[in-house]
Amino acid sequence: MNDPTTGHPLRFIADFEGELAVLHVGFRINRLLQVGKWWPVAAALPGLIRETRHAPGLLGSKTFWSGRMVMVTQYWTSAQTLEVYARDGAAGHRWAWRRFNQAARGSGAVGIFHETFIISADRSESVYVDMPPEMLAAATGVAPVQSPRPRLTPKRLPTAPKGDASRSTKRAPP
């Protein structure tokens, strides 16, 4: 069933096959009063977002702001397409990284981060109810929820080989 005003299904999933790369990238302002250190990082972000909109392999992007942190989530067709963009010497990403290193790295005024995840259609789940497509669904398109459908249950979750601490959910001791 679709929403009569938008035409979107009232209950849907993100529609993709194979694997995608998900990138979380952003910064955190640690020292508000050191504007001269963190402002160049903040000022570079809108241009980088505009640039990546046209990057081959980018499916979609969403920006978040929470307190002192700004984060962009991007969905790429593969880790390889993300890597090609990241290593492009002419891309704004390289310029922004150099500028951060020159102006702010080590000052403690601002920190930057990125996290990259590879997700696959058979090992991920997304469900959206009573809303327009957002996040992954906005990047990949949608499909109606089929009932019954496979759920992401413990049987479908990947398990880490014994002794592989990289997939452990337990925190390392301090």
Descriptive account of the structure:
- This protein has 174 residues and is of the alpha+beta class.
- It is 26% helix and 28% strand.
- The strands form two sheets. Strands 3-4-2-5 form a four-stranded antiparallel β-sheet. A three-stranded antiparallel β-sheet has the order 6-1-7.
- The longest helix has 18 residues, at 35-52.
Number of strands: 7
What's the story with the biggest beta sheet?
A: 4 strands, antiparallel
Taking the alpha carbons of the first and last residues, their distance comes to: 51 Å
* Overall 3D shape: globular
At the fold tier of CATH, the topology name is Alpha-Beta Plaits
- Kindly name the structural category: alpha+beta
Oligomerization: single chain
H-E string: EEHEEHHEEHE
Write down the CATH class. Answer: Alpha Beta
Helix content: 25-40%
The mean pLDDT is: 80
How many domain units? Answer: 1
Strand and helix map with partners:
Elements: E1 11-14, E2 19-29, H1 35-52, E3 58-66, E4 69-76, H2 79-87, H3 92-103, E5 110-120, E6 128-129, H4 135-140, E7 142-144
Helix pairs in contact: 1-3
